[in-house]
Amino acid sequence: MKQKVSKIKSMTAFARQGIEKDWGSATWELRSVNSRYLETNFRLPEPFRYLEFNLRAKLRKKLQRGKIDCNLKIDTSIASTGALSLDNDLAYSLIKAHKEFQQIANSEQPADLTRLLNWPGVIKSAQVDGDKMEAELLIGLDESIEQLISMREREGDSLSEIIKQRLEGMSQQVELVRNQMPAIVQWQKDKILKRFEEVKLEFEEQRIEQEMVIIAQKIDVDEELDRLDTHIQEVGRLITKGGAVGRRLDFLMQELNREANTLGSKSINSKTTAASVELKVLIEQMREQIQNIE
User: Is the dihedral of CA 26, 31, 37, 41 positive or negative?
Assistant: First the structure.
């Protein structure tokens, strides 16, 4: 038996499930939007308010994050509950009361049968099985939750593709900077030598090398590039792993942004500056999408 693969899920989704039974009809509606935690709100008919605790437990078992609005509408006006029956005892009592009233009033008037039939309780319909109705409503909720999860997964697939594209763009920028660094260091050395020549200063080769070591240390971004690579790989791993990883992804966006800022602050070249800016743009685009991931 194959194990079900977890997927990235969006927190934005909608589901509607209709129910048609002999007691009438019902409709479940579930709406889900972004939230830091799992929030559940219910709108239920008054006779079914007691179900709220059970419903909340069902949602918490299936969902990790998101603000969930759960709405139940029930219509029993079209119930098919069998043939109507007459409460004979009540009907005899009403007719007897009518005759006694005629005697007291000393007046003979035929009973208005239509009005008697409308007397509360004279006409009886088959009683709805409350336990059966509750069970069928809960089955409908389960189906609604599965619909909601399916939509969240479909949205999550789209978010995953967007994030993977941004990760690829970031990897390209990191590689660009790494390839440019030797040329940038050499460019800086040539620039210093040229200045010395312009002011006709005597210089020693050893002194120049010392200055270059200091400059190289100041502009060295190997650690930042390595950490960017590590974070990019971790984001990709979490996207592939799936499940409720939204908070961890959000934390990684903060770390990626920190490294991109440091890269920009150490930049002495327009190409590395542009790469830093592009990295921050890609990170922000990912962060916007990750805010919607469970």
Answer: negative
Q: Sign of the CA dihedral 150, 152, 158, 164?
A: negative
In this structure, are 30 and 111 located in the same domain? no
Determine how many CB atoms are found less than 10 A away from the CB of residue 77.
7
Terminal-residue alpha carbon distance, the chain: 27
Q: Which residues form the domain of 137?
A: 13-79+129-153
Angle between helices 130-198 and 205-219 (to 10 degrees): 160
Look at residue 3 and tell me if it is in a domain: no
Measure the CA–CA gap between 269 and 255, rounded to whole angstroms.
23
pTM of the predicted protein model? 0.71
What region, left, alpha or beta, does residue 31 occupy, with left being phi > 0 and alpha being psi -120 to 50 degrees? Answer: beta
Tell me, yes or no, whether 142 and 19 share the same domain: yes
Residue owning tokens 């509607």: 16
Residue 2 clears pLDDT 50, i.e. is over it: no
- Neighbouring C-beta atoms of residue 144, cutoff 10 Å: 22
pLDDT (tens digit per residue) in 135-192: 999 999 999 999 999 999 999 999 999 999 999 999 999 999 888 877 776 766 666 6
Instruction: Using the structure block, give the residue that is written with the tokens 């690829």.
Output: 168
**Do 159 and 148 share a domain, yes or no?**
no
